[in-house]
What we know:
The structure is a single chain. With 723 residues, the protein is an alpha+beta fold. The protein has 19 helices and 27 strands. A ten-stranded mixed beta sheet has the order 19-17-16-8-7-6-5-2-1-27, covered by helices on one side. The longest helix is centred in the first third of the chain and has 28 residues, at 2-29.
Amino acid sequence: MRLIGRLALALVLLLVIAAVGLAVWEPLTAQPPAPPAAHTYDTRIVRDNFGVPHIFGTTDPDVAYGVAYAHAEDDFSTLQEVLAMTRGRAGAMLGADGAKVDFALHLVDARGTVTRHYAEQPADVRALLDAYAAGLNHYADKHPGEVRLARLFPVTGEDVAAGFALRSPFFFGLDAVLGALADNKPLPPETAGPNPDAPDPTPLAPTGGQASDEGNRNGSNGFAIAPRRSSDGHTRLISNSHQPWRGQVAWYELVVHSKQGWDFAGANFPGAPYPLLGHNKTLGWTNTVNRPDLVDIYKLVLNADRTQYRYDGKWLPLQATRVWLPVKLWGPFVLPVPKTVYRAVQGPVICNDSGCYALHYAGADNLKMVEEYYRLNKARDFAEWQRALAMQGVPATNFIYADAAGNIGHFYNASFPNRKPGFDYRHVLPGDTSADFMPGTVPWAQVPRNVNPASGFIVNANNTPYQAAGAGSELNPADYSPLLGIETDTTNRATRALELLSANPSISADDLYRIKFDKGVSRNSWVARWFAMVLAVDPKGDKTIADAQKLLANWDWQFDGKNGADALAQFLLRDGNKWHHRRLPPSDPRADLKAATDHLIKYFGRLDPPYGSIMRLHQGPGPHTIDLPLYCGADVLRACSSWDVAANGQLASDHGDSFIMFVDWDRQGHVSSRSIQPYGAATTRPDSPHYADQAPLFAREQLKPVWFDPADLAKHTERSYRP
């Protein structure tokens, strides 16, 4: 018995030691770098009546310091998630999902990219990043109780740069490829490249071609109208990005002014020291996701123990690095999980049951984007702005541009990988030869662009660049190599926008406003063909399905709450997006119709409940909770792309129209702008009056002034202070 007691005591001691180890190993092994050199920043933050920060500084770094501090005041929690991610500590904060991001950080070697290229950045860029880091450190020092992870601070400019190096490739779908390979699943069609030999299920309207649709969680609209097409000779730009309304890629509105000539109004993501879209005094731009094939996959030929791969007749070592991923269990307990990261000549390697695959993708080992965005902010004319974009630091995303001089344009920006004729880069390639591998990026001059089209307008809604300006003003697909992998897909939003713009020879400000907030579905879109499939379903004696078909047949093709079929149509549109965006075969229309009717009957007792009682704008809980009706659709210009289902069956939208900005240059070149967000400036501060103060305007499709001119801001100031 005494021996058993001793063994039990020893076991308890071992468990205690293990528990203590799990609680302390991760912060002890985390070595925060030295903070940026001590510096005094001359920064003033002015909050307008909506809580939007206007940051003033003597120098640009003074402004970047204030950008960080102001954003931390409003959403320090999310900023810390981004910083933990750049350090490979997301798993310690967020658990298993965060550990996946940490693995991606190691796999794409984001920290290695920073180590190799940070010193190459111009001194003014490094000063900007260091100042932003210093602003975050200052906030953390003043609010230690809000710090979520031990030894996360201080952070440095290198940490800020690492966030760009890590996140950039995931905007064009690299994460989908990594996930499929890691899980032994088929490669997603949307990242395997468009297939010109596949049947064309959805012709473009009106110009012809292949088509698909942007899915539930991605999207954006951008419009530019030249003076010759506007009713009053003004130039107009609409930024209408569709992003999640909370989290690490939610837009944060801000305005910046420095005495070094940096004046800009727009929005950024957590972790960015400057606006990523918006306008300055003389020009502006917005972005929409594009979908070129930017990932090439090579299957390696391995030796028996998987330590070498064959390349051009030689056996080369498969580089292997052991990394430890921290995975938060509960409370302070963090489990260390070992993983091995592999690399070959072509790039990072994923191994699964069927072999090892090397990836060559756009923007690999590239840090130029941190300078490029800054130069875009500071550009004063179209030529300067184009020189900045030609740096090819941003690996993918459409740029829709307009300026005070009346120029407009669509730049199908992408860092296309160099490719050799004779190989099918849409599919997995042999990895044992250099014959199909060509490092580097296609020159900027070969990147598609549509500048100052005769039509006088540009629109993009996540569709092909060959559909942007209307009949007679489009790019010719024959002018571009198929090796670029340019998508030929369209969306209902693009088709509908082109129909509305093309039909209006003189577009007024009010016309453009109505087009942006249009809730219609085009009868020439993929949605029309999908709904035709739903209406053709055999009810098989199911009265509810037959009644739903009758209801849908009498729908008015608008999500404006005026027709009883709006709710039913929204469920079906969302279901169609799930397969159409991913270039998959259609789902079972009968099953989708049955699921929609089951939901409506279960929660609302009818197939035709008022649309505003189902689709909701919700922010809460807290003293400033809001719950308002929304009138929008999954692939319409007034977009709500996904939602959480509440306990009462209502749909709380959480993605779609996010930061919206209307920009106007008059005939004299003077700029003005209006904007709106779904919630407010302080989305994670429930006690703040700006937690959801923009929501009523957003729900009513109204905009607020930006007060870009400091003289106007002075009349609408809530408070002014120095951090």
